[in-house]
Amino acid sequence: MRLVTLSAIAMLASFPAATQAQTDPPALANDQRVTAQTEEAQLLALEQTAQQSQADAVAEFEKERFAPSYKAATTAEARRSLLEKIRTAAAQAGGVGIDRDDDGYVLTFEGPATYLVRVSLAEEPSYAITALSIEQMKEAATLQPARLEAQIDSLMTEAGGSGIAYVMIDDKVALEKAYGTANAALGTANRIDTIFGIGSRPIDFTTAAIYLLEQRGKLSQDDSLDTYFPDAPADRANMTIRQMLTGQSGLPDFPANESDRDADLGWIDRTELERRTMATDLLFAPGNGKAHSHWAFGLLAAIVERVSGQGYYPFLRENFFGPAGMQRTGNYGESRDLKLTDFAAGGGMQVGLPNIPPNWGPTSWLVMGSGGMYSTLGDLRRFYNLITQGDLLEPNYRDHFLATRANLDGSDRGFELFSFADEERSDQAYVFLNNGGPKAMRTLMRPLMNLLKEH
User: Which region, left, alpha or beta, applies to residue 189 given φ > 0 means left and ψ of -120 to 50 means alpha?
Assistant: First the structure.
């Protein structure tokens, strides 16, 4: 699962956060900051410059994060100026996306303006920064409802994207259109009901599962880790479910390690995920920092199983997917009697022929709870309709999903997913891509955000 965002399901372009009301955690003290031991830590450190003074940021990067080769090729003044620009962009950002490219990573700081921070890292620990730059993206295209289809057609062509675009304004569908090729080898075109990998979107499924179990009195968000794991080490025993849901657990972003053949498709079972959870070094003491963690949602999926007595996926199908009528949503490695031509093939890292989720093997606990699934435009809309309408979830839980929210998800396998909905869900947008990658998504996402924000 590609690193998509340091805030996982990113809140973009200054929209209100799609979380229950809470007090922001304190800024991290220097001794609580992430150390430069992983690629993730280096990227997170760039976002965290917003929490530091310029002097502290410069001192930390000069001492711990810049590679000697980078310092030799640049001046101290140039590095100081660059860090201040990044620090300003990070402070103004409402969301931070992360993509890989041929030279390293691209961080997208979304705020009043959009900035791209390009980062190259050394291949060995401590993954020091070998190249760094920042640029402001050009102004996004202005979309007009009366010309929406023609404008999206043009942007999709410009971006070289293939997939689906859906826009609803004032409860009326303004655009619902498929673009380009689903599977070039088979000669199939994308359709409105074509199935795509959905990246990290199962985080919302896991959140809904936790809410439903709490509503039924089976758990509390204030339960600590040692409620379910009595032998949890002391430094994490008091980590709460609420902290896992809100990025305050201290767990690293992903549970994969060098023993795994693939960071998300390599197989581990729940027992191994739980073992790694108890053994990994935390980024910070639970509750004393904030950094999104896919790992935390894997742990929540494990808690769903322990509390419900069911498998995570069967629990979702019984309580959400079945009642919502989601017939084209499933786990990696299963076809659910769907045809090969029902799936879009991802244009990214190739795994299997064709490169579709049923060919990727069973969903590993490396990504269970935060990924490992496929779905469609129709099925995702059915899911959100189920949990925001009717009485499955009580109002205090529905509110989480009814806040104005923009979600961005992606995968190394070449799938991208963006969605937006306002508080009343009367204005919505979805973009699914199987070709074009993060660059194409950036081309489409910002104009749609501006259209619906200003409408």
Answer: beta
